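Here's what a typical entry looks like (Adenine DNA glycosylase):
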Amino acid sequence: MNTPNHIPAEKFQTALLGWYARGHRAMPWRDENASPYHIWLAEVMLQQTTVTAVIPYYQRFLHRFPTLQSLAEAPIDDVLQHWQGLGYYRRAHMLHKCAQTLMRDHNGQFPVTEAELLNLPGLGPYTAAVIAATAFNTAANVVDGNVERVISRLYRVQQELPAARTTLRNLADHLASPAEPRLYANAIMELGSQVCTPTTPQCLLCPVAQWCEANQHGDQTTYPRKAPKKQTPHHTATAWLITDASGHIYLQQRPATGLLASLYELPHSGWEPKSTPQQAPLMLETQTECGSITHVFSHFKLTLNLLHTEVTNIPAANRFHPEALPALSTLMRKALTHALKQT
């Protein structure tokens, strides 16, 4: 790996911004007039989710919560209901908490600088930087997964992720444009997403290929270096689809804190690793097998065996019509859909 100065920052910026100006993807939150609220919402949704998948969710969410104030004042159950399908529900909880903090402590206004934004709930270095740069055109070092890939290849960084993140941020900071923060941030993220892709980088189309060490060595796809993945634990549990004669479904709400907080779910035997085994909530007589589903979380793999039974009465607090369901996690929507098809 060469020193940061082997790439002339101003020439790099000129090449990158010229390429970006000639054409890039249109996104509703990338408009110069997009509000900080719109940019923040989009960036939170884009964590762990692709642009193509996010756009319809983004539009529906804004239709229901068009302003920061409307989001802050909404019940968390309503927010979770409109987040369904995006997964990683902690993002929705932190979004709601941050909106309330902004309304209460900042008069409904986003701070302008990266340092101030970092003090808000749920905002890490990347989200704070991208809001500062793209919403306020304030100098900031925006580094997401796409930028990490670009930088690691430009400098052929041998250190493995995640340990390499500090090195990559420092190298990225050398190249970032203090004069055009908004354009530069959008351009380098676009480069990583559309040209410097993980498995099939389009090096002939890359505006900065002349400075790329990995391109010169022909080993682009080996960067960024990553530490070997640990074996994913596999857990097995049971979930019950409990219905009554009218087709209503028994659902229970999860605790207000922790994994998938406040979401509803089918009763189960304890699907989280190391969770305390649980019994069915009602006296169940005949139980019919409904197959099983597999779901992969970030830190474990789950096989959920499904059983169906019909009962005479479901308590009112747990009784839901299948066409008026509360917010369910991706896991439970998958389980419920599969079980209903088998009954």
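The chain has a mean pLDDT of 92.

More examples are in the samples folder.
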